[in-house]
# Entry
Amino acid sequence: MGALKQYIDLAREHRSTLDGNAPAALNEGRERALAFLDEARRLPDGSDEGYEKTSVEEMFKPDFGVNVNRVNIPVNVARSFRCDVPNITTLLAVVVNDRFVATSTLQGNLPEGVRVCSLRDVPREELEGYLGRSAGGYDAAMALNSLLLQDGVFIGVDKGVKLHKPVQIVNIFSGGVPLLAPRRVIVAAGEGAEVSILKCDHTQTPGVKFASSEIVEIFAGEDARVEWCDLEESTPDTVRWCQLRCCQQRGSRVNICGATLTNGVTRNEYLIEVEGDGCETLLSGMAIGSGRQHIDNSSFICHSADHGHSDQLFKYVLDENASGAFEGLIEVAHGARHNEAYQSNRNLLASGGARMHTRPQLLIYNDDVKCSHGATTGQLDEAALFYMRSRGIPVDEARKMLMQAFMVDVVSKINLETLRDRLRYLLELRFAGGCGDVSCQGCHENMFNDA
# Structure
């Protein structure tokens, strides 16, 4: 049986239960998803353009269960996060597998004009105005997620509201059997609003196979400021297919950073539509791979308005037998004048067994632009290693220092100082090998005591 058929059959067999446990706006998308997937008959695999190095069909082929009946799976949130890190005060929400859990920290500290809640708590007409209406066409990622979706997270910031504390969403996988979690996050920033969001993916139960199907939809209104930072620290048995879709209105600024620190197989897709004049788009990513980790990032930024500026930077450090892939496309549409768009992918292979595939691309339909793209793949600088060893630094320590320094300019892309500090710390921990406990993911225990 193919990977897709098992989920189609499950959705049909348990359709009434799925619909009964989800808000009406989510249920309305299920029929469209079924029709699309019936026609597609499979998920993207190596024969599809852009998926040559990452077969989603293979990722989701194991017999993952789905928590159709919304069983409350117990989870000890604090036990999953034992490493001390620099203090960061956030508005915290937790998603256990695919179930939204609000904390007392969140409920008692939301300022006026800000909502962080389950999709179940969003009025139907409002939710229908956002679901599936962000950048990008309807595709297999959106269809699979919509087919099984029962809950999600809504972050709404009203016109002119500036949220000074970051919102933090912690996704936790927990359970004793293989499980697929469909997750959806909607971020709606009104005109002139400002919000920073940190999302962390963790796996609490090592040795159990988990799969994440996630769609993130970001709507940045006129002159809005949105920062999104996504950290993945999962296990070798976790697969993740995450698609971020973003629409930008006039004068908005969006800063998106993704970091894969530990994982199994990951496919991240970024689809950004710059619809308004004078927008700024920063998209950056880092991937650290060892063992047999596989990390694939795909990006598409379309400038369809005037005077936009976009800058992409993706960096990989791959060791042992890890593999990576990056494919990026910048499109400047007909009539979109005076845009500047830049894309760079730089990769460091720290062993002979590491492999990297890269393909940056430009699609330009007029002359009034400044655009560039490029990619480099190399190894550790032997001269720098020799110099550091001659100064008494052990070779393993020198290697770690060089790999960490390689990632500095990605970290510097993050605007919020507290998030930069956190990522620096987690990088140090990752290159140092952590504490040796796969359940120790680097978040401050005190933050989770009220979950």
Q: What stands out?
A: The chain has one domain: 3-377+438-448. Confidence is low (pLDDT under 50) at residues 435-451. The chain has eleven helices and 20 strands. The first helix runs from residue 3 to 13.
